[in-house]
Specification:
The complex is a heterotrimer of chains A (about 300), B (about 290) and C (about 375). Chain B has about 290 residues and is mainly alpha-helical. Chain B has helices at about 1-45, 45-50, 65-75, 75-110, 115-125, 130-140, 150-155, 160-170, 175-185, 190-200, 200-215, 220-225, 235-245, 250-270, 275-285. Chain B has 2 domains: about 5-45; about 65-285, MetI-like (MetI-like fold, Orthogonal Bundle), CATH 1.10.3720.10. In chain B, about 40% of the residues are buried. The chains are: A mainly alpha (about 300), B mainly alpha (about 290), C alpha+beta (about 375).
Chain lengths: ~300, ~290, ~375
């Protein structure tokens, strides 16, 4: 038995070692960092314990900007992308011809490099001295004024960021919703049809409740994902997000850690923990709400 | 006849609805495909042609591959691609080895504290990467592993989620198979590689595919840990190209680089379309 | 209400490219009398479920007519036909309670048929009472046993007092004991409501035991229609003879010669007026009489005691079944030491069929 037990630990050793060094230890360490005041990464010394780091971060205008950006991004993209994905999946599941082609095309953004395609979005939306860009050309065509979406007003930048985020997250949502819709047994629809249920009522009373677990799953993971937004912003606005006024919380953490304003792991830790607390709170609320509304 | 009318109305309604659905789906298809079209189109426009288009054109009459040549000669795109390939292959291989052994121990072997340890493992799934990356950055820096492949690879060779996924799959294999193998005198390790791994190959393939996509597109960690271009991956490479590469305005060459780094995964996707989509719906997340 | 099917046909294009079309339902013409319980019987894949879906309106007929009473409903959508349907897997909505499930069809009613909440509640209670599930009304389907779910499904189908009740394999998801109980339940409900009921099954025992009439189908074609006992006693072809009855009918290669039926050289029965020809001989298990001087000599294999009856298992070189099973009264004594066993036959339990067409040859 002991020999067997030892053998099992041997199998587990690599996983445990890696997890201990790169997950468990850092997890403890990040809390320590966040309470160590005036930590200096060069000399690895600090002069005191307290909540100063949190206070600093919460009074940092860059952090507040990042917080605002992130919240706006979450509030706009999660409901919109989920609803749009639902509509697209419903449309997809009601056709048979070309269905696979559409599904394949819709999935493409999932396998693309966020940074690379972000560059394409930038080119499409950018207004430079040489060209107003593709999107502005269309705006002009419909009689609107050119806007610089990349380097212009805040709302325009926010718009592109949301649009790109939605474009990126759609494949996953469409995929999950389509398979959820496909798993609703045809029997239910037949039964409803025999009873003369209208399309609208079938959707509200049968389809929606049946796929509600998937919808809530998507909303929860959507919230978590959107709160961690970072690379899509970098892709559109470059690495200096603070200057562009488009930083996100995660971006703030990395900037504090490394980058032009970097070298402050304590501030980074405090910001990361604040983010984690926000995500945890929102997820808990989401779970409580879903418990109430998902009946199974 | 009255009924005939009902049927005709129904037929018309169905047709209208189908037309609307197809138009809607096609519009979203265009929105998805347009950026791809635009990057390919721009990448084959010559720099001078592109610069002279104040109003961008939807086509080009004189395609050129000069931009691709530039992408490989002016900036170290081939270096980035090679780095990413090495990073992806090594990380994936190591991770598969680590998680297979761990999943096997959890699914098949008996030892004291197994349940407790597994619960601890599961609870680690909730820890966001953003929280631990700070210390990892410090750890790797202090170990002098910045700008090395070791530093790039080490933190991502385990995944609690994949261990969990694989363990669930392993656990479905009936115990009788194990006892039968034991009776025949098969060693644990042989049983793992001759029986369990082949049976669970679909899951392993799924994990490999997901990990490859993740590695190919990873950006944050490589950005933190490398500032020497010789160790840049494609994501950092593209960012570098954007900010310092061809000169800010050489968009066609930039797009050529974008096309080049996008193609490998798109080809992979088109080949393993079903497997990838099934895998993602089972255990994939974006981000 | 009477249901008439008039040359009803459902044709599907072949799954293989260029193959012949598949007739799931081929030229059905028959009449279902008002207020009867009909069992639509056949092996799986014979088109019986398609037939049910045609009557229900979920599938559109390729040609032919469906007439309910005096109304031609062929091209009508299901909701205006006035049918209630119980699906094989019950199709109870898992997120709704039993009450909500039963009320669901009523809530769909529009215009002049629209009901008040109270009326709906009363209706639901009434339907629930019929299937005796009043005390389960506030549970979710997942909290019910298979049999209870079945009752809820029936209540939901009955709640808008349909003109026709359709049941698709109503007993296939129940265990053996519940199956017996439920089929009596279906019979009782049908007798109480007097609604014309059609149910589909592949289990001949089920169909025989509760139907007023059975319709035996094979690959899209109706083989025989009749009261269960009549069909059993007087099958029109070998397929029907084989399909009805447990244990299965024993089939032998035989021959009619000079007005006598031969099995393996032994004349077993007189067959006056039948042309001399090779035939299939079907003998029901209960058609055997133990008889030391009987003409049919079989190799004795085993004796299965079943209480009231005993079953003699034997073999014969001309028998097409794996073994001959003959059921005889337990009072008979069988000499188990003897290597052979001899039978004489009850003439009305012996059927002969044309060797090629497998059609019955009547004496």
């Amino acid at each position: 038995m002991d020999y067997k037990s030892n053998k099992a630990w041997l199998y587990l050793l690599p996983a445990i070692a890696f997890l201990a060094v790169f997950m468990v230890y850092p997890l403890i360490d990040v809390f320590i960092y966040s309470f160590e005041e005036g930590y200096n990464s060069a000399s690895q010394t600090s002069f005191g314990i307290g909540a100063y780091n949190y206070s600093y971060v919460l009074h940092d205008p860059y952090f507040m900007q990042a917080l605002k950006n992130t919240f706006l991004l979450v509030i706009i993209t999660v409901p919109l992308s989920t609803a749009l994905a639902l509509v697209i999946s419903l449309a997809l599941s009601s056709i048979t011809k070309l269905k696979e082609l559409f599904q394949t095309v819709y999935f493409l953004p999932y396998v693309t490099n966020t940074l690379a395609v972000g560059l394409v979005f930038m080119v499409l939306f950018q207004k430079t001295a040489y060209s107003d860009g593709m999107i502005n050309m269309m705006i002009n065509f419909f009689g609107g004024e050119s806007v610089d979406f990349i380097d212009g007003p805040y709302w325009a930048k926010m718009f592109v960021l949301c649009l790109y985020t939605i474009w990126i997250v759609m494949p996953f949502k469409i995929l999950l919703l389509t398979s959820a819709l496909a798993s609703v047994r045809q029997d239910y629809y037949n039964a409803a049809k025999v009873d003369g249920t209208s399309r609208f009522r079938i959707f509200w009373r049968i389809t929606l409740p049946m796929i509600s677990p998937t919808i809530f799953y998507l909303v929860i993971t959507g919230f978590i994902g959107a709160f961690k937004a970072y690379s899509d912003a970098v892709a559109l606005f470059g690495t200096d997000l603070n200057a562009a006024g488009m930083n996100t919380i995660v971006g703030y953490v990395y900037d504090m850690l490394y980058g032009d304003s970097g070298g402050y792991p304590s501030y980074a830790s405090a910001a990361a923990i604040i983010l984690f607390a926000i995500v945890l709170t929102i997820t808990t609320i989401n779970l409580l709400v879903s418990k109430k509304h998902v009946h199974y | 006849m009255d009924y005939e009318q009902i049927r005709k109305q129904e037929a018309v309604r169905t047709r209208v609805r189908n037309v609307v659905i197809y138009i809607f789906l096609a519009v979203w298809g265009v929105i998805v495909l347009f950026p791809f079209y635009w990057m390919v189109l721009t990448s084959i426009k010559s720099y001078s042609a592109y610069s002279s288009e104040y109003v961008p054109k939807f086509y080009t009459t004189s395609p050129t591959f000069q931009n691709y040549v530039d992408a490989f000669t002016t900036v170290s795109l081939s270096r980035y691609l090679l780095n990413t390939l090495i990073f992806t292959v090594v990380t994936t291989v190591l991770m598969i080895a680590v998680i297979t052994l761990a999943a096997y121990a959890f699914a098949r072997l008996e030892f004291r504290g197994k349940d407790l340890l597994f619960t601890l493992f599961l609870s680690l799934m909730m820890i966001p990467n953003e929280l631990v990356i700070i210390t990892n950055f410090v750890t790797i820096t202090n170990a002098g592993l910045r700008n090395t492949f070791t530093g790039l690879i080490l933190p991502s060779v385990t995944s609690v989620f994949y261990i969990y996924l694989l363990r669930e799959n392993f656990a479905q294999i009936p115990d009788e198979l194990y006892y039968a193998a034991k009776v025949d005198g098969t060693s644990d390790l042989k049983y793992l590689f001759k029986v369990m791994v082949p049976i669970c190959r679909p899951t392993l393939v799924t994990v490999v595919i997901l990990k490859v996509i993740e590695c190919w597109n990873s950006y944050v960690w490589p950005r933190l840990i490398t500032d020497d271009q010789a160790y840049f991956l494609v994501s950092n490479g593209i960012q570098e190209i954007r900010e310092n590469g061809f000169g800010r305005e050489n968009i066609p060459a930039m797009m050529a680089a974008v096309v080049t780094i996008s193609i490998p995964l798109i080809i992979l996707f088109l080949i393993f379309r079903r497997k990838i989509m099934a895998g993602v719906s089972r255990g994939g997340l974006k981000g | 209400m009477k249901i008439v099917l008039d040359h009803l046909t459902k044709r599907y294009p072949s799954l293989k490219k260029g193959g012949p079309d598949v007739y799931a339902v081929n030229d059905f013409t028959f009449e279902i009398p008002d207020g009867k319980l009909i069992g639509l019987l056949g092996p799986s894949g014979c088109g019986k479920s398609t037939c049910l879906n045609l009557i229900c309106g979920l599938t559109r007929a390729t040609s032919g007519k469906i007439i309910f009473g005096d109304d031609d409903v062929t091209d009508l959508p299901p909701e205006v036909r006035g049918v209630g349907m119980v699906f094989q897997n019950y199709a109870l909505y898992p997120h709704l309670t039993v009450r909500q499930n039963i009320m669901f069809p009523l809530e769909n009613l529009k215009g002049k048929d629209k009901m008040t909440k109270e009326a709906m509640m009363a209706k639901a209670e009434e339907a629930a009472g019929l299937v005796q599930i009043n005390e389960l009304m506030d549970r979710k389907p997942s909290e019910l046993s298979g049999g209870q779910q079945q009752r809820v499904a029936i209540a939901r189908a009955l709640v808008k007092t349909p003109r026709v009740l359709l049941l698709d394999e109503p007993l296939s998801n129940l265990d053996a004991r519940l199956r017996l109980q439920t089929r009596e339940e279906i019979r009782r409900i049908q007798t109480e409501t007097k609604v014309t009921t059609i149910f589909v099954t592949h289990d001949q025992e089920e169909a025989m035991s509760i139907s007023d009439y059975i319709f035996v189908m094979k690959s899209g074609v109706i083989q025989q229609i009749g009261k269960p006992q009549e069909v059993y006693d007087d099958p029109v072809n070998l397929f029907v003879a084989k399909f009805l009855g447990t244990p299965q009918i024993n089939v032998f290669d035989g021959e009619v010669n000079n007005g006598k039926l031969y099995i393996g050289g032994e004349a077993v029965l007189p067959m006056p007026g039948v042309q001399s020809q090779p035939v299939h001989v079907g003998i029901r298990p209960e058609g055997f009489i133990l008889d030391e001087k009987g003409p049919l000599c079989c190799d004795f294999r085993a004796l299965e005691v079943m209480g009231r009856d005993i079953s003699v298992v034997s073999g014969h070189k001309n028998c097409q079944n794996v073994a001959i099973r003959s059921i005889i009264d337990a009072d008979n004594k069988v000499d188990t030491s003897s290597p052979t066993v001899r039978f004489s036959l009850k003439p009305h339990k012996v059927f002969i069929f044309n060797k090629e067409t497998e059609e019955r040859i009547r004496v």
